[in-house]
Amino acid sequence: MDYNKKTVTDIDVKGKKVLCRCDFNVPQDKQTGAITDDKRIRAALPTLQYLLSQGAAVIACSHLGKPKGQVKPALTLAPVAERLQQLLGQDVIFASDSVGPDAQAKAAALQPGQVLLLENLRFEPGEEKNDPAFAKALADLAGADGVYVSDAFGTVHRAHASTAGVAAYLPAVSGYLIQKELEIIGGALAAPKRPLVAILGGSKVSSKIGVINNLLEIADTIIIGGGMAYTFSAAQGGKVGDSLLESDWMDYANEMVKKAEEKGVKLLLPVDTMVADAFAPDSNAKVVSAGEIPDGWQGLDIGPKTIELYTEAVANAGTVIWNGPMGVFEFPAFAVGTKAVAEALSKTDAITIVGGGDSAAAVEQLGYADKMTHISTGGGASLEFMEGKALPGVVCLLDR
Ligand code: ADP
Ligand code: MG
């Protein structure tokens, strides 16, 4: 999917009200409600600051958590308004509803240079149902010459009122965050600097079918790691012990190996694996050859020979797309393979792209975040992008 969508700099916003869909779905302390990581709020600042500098009145909106169409006071965006105010260094007006009387009055009175944040969109059942009436009510807040800016990449794979429906009523463009995702991931998929190496891992083959299918069409090399590797190994007659195995997907795994051969795509599978006698951080561990995992043991990471093989495979890449950790990186003893791959990526001249929620978390946790070209801000959205699926929150934006 190659998108060429208008962005904030392609549209005049001076003196206009701009409805800006942000991703303020921040993690909070369960007890106190305090924001434990404000990365997503900080990520929204460039677009918001640009709009303000252009003389727009900004109506920011977002969802938070899963209130499922009901008002859940614990999921109010009020703490986000406060943090946004600190980060922007200017007042942020907060509306106690999203399209109700408070939002309407505050939006109507909003002046250029001011910021209004609406209450959690998912307090309204119309948001996730993409109800046209709710979408229209949101659009109406921006008035007759209003503009819609979409900057919540994490929700572009969902056709909700605030991510897609609203674009039927206002001229719709992307913000900087989405623009960057489209340029970098979209560019790598449509016209990659070659060779394109895709590293696929994570837990299950079944959750990565779409990604494997699509990347088999465009990559030069595909590297398989993580839990899904054992389904490939078992499909080739290997012994996988107690490792994660999806027996229903063994035929599929064999088909993929065959398809890769036919297409001339190099498909690399682990040659050794780090096995454990329990799924636990302090389990006993040893290295065995792939396909020779004894009963009572399970593979939790790739082994040292595989690390060498995979490190070599990425060394001369033009582009690397990585989705899915190489092992159970949450246990330090089994984060070795994931760390080695991250290290290898940090050393290449390749464009390096990390997508997927756990993969992004792994790269951050292991300290390689600033060494990558791009870490996608959307877990599910980046996966669907890599699957080649149309993203409703992007499709709805104006073409250039
Ligand atoms: P992403 O969110 O980046 O798309 P996934 O959700 O597919 O990634 O996979 C991440 C999970 O896969 C991690 O929680 C990790 O512990 C798990 N995982 C990786 N390797 C193994 C393995 N060998 N056995 C079991 N789980 C694994
Ligand atoms: Mg995940």
Structure description:
It is a single chain. The protein is of the alpha/beta class and 400 residues long. The protein has 14 helices and 17 strands. The strands form 4 sheets. The chain has a 6-stranded parallel sheet with strand order 3-4-2-1-5-6, sandwiched between helices. A hairpin with an 8-residue loop joins strand 11 and strand 12. The radius of gyration is 23 Å and the shape is elongated. The chain binds adenosine-5'-diphosphate (ADP) and magnesium ion. Adenosine-5'-diphosphate binds next to strand 14, helix 12 and helix 13.
Structural descriptors:
400 residues; binds magnesium ion; binds adenosine-5'-diphosphate; six-stranded parallel β-sheet; alpha/beta; 16% strand
